[in-house]
Design a protein that fits this description.
With 375 residues, this protein is an alpha/beta fold. It is 44% helix and 16% strand. Among the domains are: 2-135, 3-Layer(aba) Sandwich (Rossmann fold); 301-374, Rna Polymerase Sigma Factor, Chain: A (Orthogonal Bundle). The protein binds NADP nicotinamide-adenine-dinucleotide phosphate. NADP nicotinamide-adenine-dinucleotide phosphate (NAP) binds next to α1, β2 and α5.
């Protein structure tokens, strides 16, 4: 029986993780749940899964409950320190997940990693302390599976697939409304990652995540647009062979794999929607258009410039997406704001994960200042 801690249990990845665990009660036990602000949802999950401890970042929990309760960031840290777990599913959204993910990695269990920001911003520090990282992001899970039994010297390129988002074929992007950007054609995800998929920033962040996970130089990490989201990513080898991993666009598949690796769970028995129907399936691939979707290019450039630029990129993107969702800036101003913040920032490279968090804070301040003139 594997003991599982879920950081971000009330989110899209968190809820899917609980569905997988519920289907395999003889394999997994939830020992800890951590959420941001959705107190009622968190308490309902706790009542159902009976963990040993629960933490809420933004708010207090009653202390007369049949499990330990914690609150605030320091409470999350205490929970991670006190609860023994074999696997931590790190699924807090955004840079808020950096410290909790780092603390969980340091504790020594398996890190089932969804919070890409922890690697984008603090890859060096998380890798230094983590015993084992199994990716949850479907693209990285795919690459992880394609590389099984292979040697890195034989790999020519890693090829991440991207759906291209809802605006792949839309000419005019100036008038995109938040509700349109929140409608992803294939995946159901949290708001931030859905908007990032529409701007292609999500793919940019995934390129940086892949850089840390797989140890390949940036110029050998490529992106292709694949609107059907059936091929989750590919590895091209030096003999010309390409190995891909395919599957239905359902996050329960990579989540289950991160929980059960190296075994595979009989997921299809419980979730028939995880099956792909080959007949009528059409798979197409295109080159990404970085003129119309400059965020992808900005992500590559930030990593080429070196640290701390990826931290600045991520912080500026989080501020830009927030402002866009509040209706304060246009969809097309998201990359403009990020580019300007990258060009006007001058932070030193971080020497610790705490310094990463400080650069993230200062870069957000800078982004809000730069955005002032559009508000
Ligand atoms: N969804 C996907 O299909 C998908 C796929 C690949 C990778 N990812 C990555 O997985 C991560 C989570 O994505 P998501 O779509 O699940 O996001 P989401 O639905 O927005 O959920 C985010 C979770 O993080 C919690 N949270 C936010 N701020 C917090 C804080 N300061 N302290 C503690 N918890 C906090 C939220 O709690 P409350 O809701 O209670 O506030 C919620 O449980 C992201 O990094 C994303 O890029 C997601």
């Amino acid at each position: 029986m594997k003991r599982v801690l879920i950081l971000g249990s009330t989110g899209s990845i968190g809820q899917n993780t609980l569905k997988v665990i519920e289907a395999f009660p003889e394999r997994f036990k939830v020992v800890g749940l951590v959420a941001g602000t959705r107190k009622e949802e968190l308490l309902a999950q706790a009542e159902k899964f009976k963990p040993e401890a629960v933490a809420l970042y933004g708010g207090e929990l009653p202390d007369n409950l049949p499990f330990k309760t914690y609150s605030g960031l320091s409470g999350i840290r205490k929970l991670i320190e006190k609860v023994d777990f074999d696997i931590c599913v790190a699924a807090i959204s955004g840079s808020a997940g950096i410290l909790p993910t780092y603390w969980a990695a340091k504790k020594g269990g398996r890190l089932a990693l969804a919070n890409k920001e922890a690697l984008v911003c603090a890859g060096k520090f998380v890798k230094e302390v983590a015993r084992e990282i199994i990716p949850v992001d479907s693209e990285h899970s795919a690459i992880f599976q394609c590389l099984k039994g292979e040697e890195l010297k034989d790999v020519k390129e890693i090829i991440l697939t991207a759906s291209g988002g809802p605006f792949r074929e839309r000419e005019e992007l100036d008038s995109v409304k938040p509700e349109e950007a929140l409608k992803h054609p294939n995946w159901e995800m949290g708001k931030k990652v859905t908007v990032d998929s529409a701007t292609l920033m999500n793919k940019g962040l995934e390129v940086i995540e892949a850089y840390w996970l797989f140890g390949l130089p940036l110029e050998r990490i490529k992106v292709v647009i694949h609107p059907q989201s059936i091929v989750h990513s590919m590895v091209k080898f030096r003999d010309g062979s390409v190995i891909s991993q395919m599957g239905a666009p359902d996050m329960k598949i990579p989540i289950a794999y991160a929980l059960s690796h190296p075994e595979r769970l009989p997921l299809l028995d419980s979730f028939p929607s995880c099956e792909i129907d080959f007949f009528g399936l059409e798979l197409t691939f295109y080159e990404p258009d970085t003129q119309r979707f400059p965020c992808l290019k900005l992500a590559y450039e930030s990593l080429k410039r070196g640290y701390p630029y990826p931290i600045v990129l991520n912080a500026a993107d989080e501020v830009a997406v927030e402002l866009f969702l509040e209706g304060k800036i246009k969809f097309t101003q998201i990359p403009l704001l990020i580019e300007e913040v990258l060009n006007s920032s001058d932070f030193p490279p971080p020497g610790s994960v705490e310094e990463v968090v400080e650069i993230d804070r200062r870069a957000r301040e800078l982004a809000r200042k730069v955005a002032q003139r559009w508000l």
